[in-house]
Amino acid sequence: MIPIAVVGMKLSFRIDEAYSLKDKRSVIKSIIHKMHRKFNISIAELDKQDMLNQGVIGISVVGNEYQQCHTVIDKVLNEIEETYAIEVYNIERMEM
Asked: What is the model's pTM?
């Protein structure tokens, strides 16, 4: 039997540069598209779709080893924080 590791993260953040819902959606769509393309992860907006300056996204990684999955999740988080004008205020991690 092949081992399977699933690691997830729920990321809640404030968007500093959002002055309208259109601005907010643009930032979130950019995060989702770029992170999926760069890291081959599952990523989606989960909550607070109608709140102007807040966003919640979920990220998951499936692999053979938990350590490998955690490494990818950490790289995604670092990339998001370095690339976008957001303030992360809550991170929930989970593994299966």
From this structure: 0.83
